[in-house]
Amino acid sequence: MTDDTPFPWFVAIGASGTDGLRDIQDVLSALPPVLDAVVLVVLHRSWDHPSRLAEILNRVSLLPVSVARAGERFAAGQVYVGEPGDHLALAANSFGRLVYDPDRRYRNRTVDLLFRSVAEHGGSRMIGIVLSGALDDGARGLAAINETGGLTMVLTPSRSVGRGMPENAIAYDGPIDLIGSPIEIAAGIREAVQSGRRAWLAVERR
């Protein structure tokens, strides 16, 4: 897949907890209603309760949000989430892959799982985004996206909390193309997808 192919962009977003959910809502609410991108969202949340993530995000997102189905071909202009125990990933030819994990093998590595699948199958039109969350999930996967030619974006770390997902992503291997607020990240997504170029970035290298 190259930049002159008709395939859409893949935007992979990872976050954790209440703050991460709020960040995802802020990003999605700032995206336009028409976007030539498949948006894939992973949020760490309880495995023991039914998930209403798609319903919650649909309240604020101008793009429709749905729970991905295994083997489904992802469509541009859509947001996809997985169930807590069925981890969302990208397979070849834009098809969805759900990793059933009854033994919780991946535990707090579900963002890395998504990002690495996008790095493998997303071609050069891909963006990895790390938002709020504890620990370091997403750092390795974001580096994989960078290494395969994708764009990387990270939420500006909060000074009021300890080191978490944004801080670890920035400190890990590979440059970050954009560090900013959810609104700035949404603007970066929109510009990258609409322009098809990297030149627009006001790059903030670590």
From TrEMBL:
Its EC number is 3.1.1.61. The keyword Hydrolase applies. PROSITE patterns: CHEB. GO terms for molecular function: phosphorelay response regulator activity; protein-glutamate methylesterase activity. Keywords: Chemotaxis, Hydrolase. It catalyses: [protein]-L-glutamate 5-O-methyl ester + H2O = L-glutamyl-[protein] + methanol + H(+). The active site is at 16, 44, 137. Residues 6-170 form the CheB-type methylesterase domain. GO terms for cellular component: cytoplasm. GO terms for biological process: chemotaxis. InterPro entries: CheB_C (IPR035909), Sig_transdc_resp-reg_Me-estase (IPR000673). Pfam families: CheB_methylest. This is protein-glutamate methylesterase. It comes from Methylobacterium terricola.
